[in-house]
Amino acid sequence: MKTTLKLMSLILALTMFSCFNKKETEYANAEDIPVNREMIAELTSPPHVPTPVGRRKAKKLIVKMEILEKVGEMTDGVEYMYWTFGGTVPGSFIRTRVGDEVEFHLQNHPDNKLPHNIDMHAVTGPGGGAESSFVAPGHEKVFSFKTLNPGLYVYHCATAPVGMHIANGMYGLILVEPEGGLPPVDKEYYIMQGDFYTKGANGERGLQPFDMQKAVDEKADYVVFNGKVGALTGDNAITAKVGETVRLFVGNGGPGLVSSFHVIGEIFDRVHVEGGDLINENVQTTMIPAGGAAMVEFRVDVPGTFILVDHSIFRAFNKGALGMLKVEGEEDKKIYSGEIRDDIYLPEGPGIQEMPTTDELVASEIPAKSFEEQMEFGKNAYMQTCFACHQAEGQGIPNAFPPLANSDYLNADVNRAIGIVLHGKTGEITVNGKKYNSVMTRQMLSTDEIANVLTYVYNSWGNNKTVVTKEMVEKVKKSK
Ligand SMILES: [Cu+2]
User: Fold this and answer.
1) What is the pTM (predicted TM-score) of this model?
2) Which residues have their alpha-adjacent CB atom under 5 A from ion ligand 1?
């Protein structure tokens, strides 16, 4: 009698146990996944992302997001009144898993001027939450939703005029991981492109107001990653070590432009196309629509600085859509040799010859006969070789390429400048009070061309009018 009772209770306990232990994959619909316990969501500012969900069970996830309207720097000397989710552009990264019940608290700071709301593309419901979250300054709105579909989703403000709220920076990403989480990687980063429209032209100083007409015409003054020019360059570059796997959560807030996302010198091993389940492999450039996202994964095999761009390339070099991934570690000459040789190629000649010495090169060129000619030839050389990085007026690109215009570094030491053009330059330098830590490759120019191009640079844009001669260049060359 006693044993049967024991047996029965054991069976009962076992069935109860297995019932509670029911595997989540057995739920046909994500909405049936039970949530156990409550948890405050970790929110992070770009380029960082919260801890992966890993094997954690679905939970009631409490998200507290504060809207802040605040002035920030678009680029050197240019300020902008950003409207933000969580104080940054893009807004705080939200990381959830399928089956989570998200209790969203949208807080509009009392110092703000305007009402806002949030439309999350991860939400199944009217307006993606916009209708329930419209909140005036000094108020908090609460609504809740269940994450049904795994993927990487954009969220944004959807208060009229919608385009204006987005253009001012009101967008971010929410990730819904599948059960068990995404496969682990070594490094994860959060990057989001956006286009900005200012009353003044690109670079015009001061606090720049939003320009509605330019936005309607989609004529962006700035196209940037993470809200400003240089958010991911120089000291702000994202980093990895040789051999590590990297996952980029890349979004595009728009409001107007589609991004052709590319990393110079890398091939994406895997791309979650449009942030969904479809995986494409071996991709060079992935298209990220306005209001869309992608997860991009690759292993870094060699050291160096890899440049992130919108491959609509003027946006990268002239409007700011340029970031950097700095990879440290051992070189692998099998994968990438670096420059081995520079030979002369003569299609009609008897095969490959050696590079001639500088003297031979000089002899075959017509040297400049006057200062005016030096300036003319120098300008040509500048527009062919230096312009891409240092820009047309020598103004450079903040945090990436130092200015040659009015450069204290340039003016302080002509032999050093000659050396830089001859041999290239790496390592930290300070130009006009700003630090740069990047790479300028050796410029393949003859002694005459170096003399001309530097004479042009020294006699333009407020520099100290040094005239650089071929002899000066040769002296530096020999002194090496
Ligand atoms: Cu808004």
Assistant:
1) 0.67
2) 116, 157, 159, 165, 170
